[in-house]
Amino acid sequence: MSDNELGTYLRTWREAVTPEEVGLPPGLRRRTPGLRRAELATLAGISVEYLTRLEQGRDRNPSAQVLGALADALNLSLQDRIVLRRLTKEADGGDPLVCGAAPPLSRTPRPTVRAVLEHLEPAPAVVLNWIGDVLAHTSGYAGLFGPIGVLDAEQPNLLRHLFTDARARDAYPDWEREADNLVAQLRHDVPLRDPYAAELAEELTVTAGAEFADRFADLATAPRRVGSQRVEHPEVGPLRLLHETLALPEDGQRVVIHLPADEATAAALDRLTGRRPGALRAVSRAAG
User: Could you tell me the pTM of the whole model?
Assistant: First the structure.
């Protein structure tokens, strides 16, 4: 990991926001499509010299007011503001109430969580820890993702499968989008200075190369908690899924539930699980 992640994050966003997006004229002879330091500094009400120190890592402790002004100037979302604040704490040595020793990585769901999975049948649902290890799953999940190799390893891991199993490329028509989201989860959802995430990131940097490393270095991509997914299943063909994520913060785990987005997918999932037709109903996602 970089030792100047706060500065990299600010610079990445500055270069990603166009002048037009913040009400400035496009100007001429721009070396990059983003904002100049002077423009961002003016919008945020700080000096160019101070912004330069922040981006170069020579100042790592901006005030909450400065962070808020920069976030407003860059039109950051709530999730991106949380990431910005988190990186500031990390750059300043970490919040002792948050950082300290990294908590142990859990690989065992609580009995009550397993009971929740049983009640979710036949829906495909899975319990993951913060580095993407599969800890428990429904039979519906096994029917959906087992044939594409997700569960083949002794300790299944979504990132390892996506980046190192050739079947994943065929299974996910939107592979790039899937990769962006899983790496963003690893990058932003783990405890500060987590050794397990660092170990997995080092492993995948070697085994998957730039496709993983470049995404892991991109601090501006935030993970999606809800959304859609397309899967090309080897047994039942194309599927359209929606997913919801339920966080279990005390355990460092999350439950991800996949639901059919259309009637054809609902019928296909019923065939995979051997359930009566209509056991899973298609869910319509609201516009927006």
Answer: 0.68
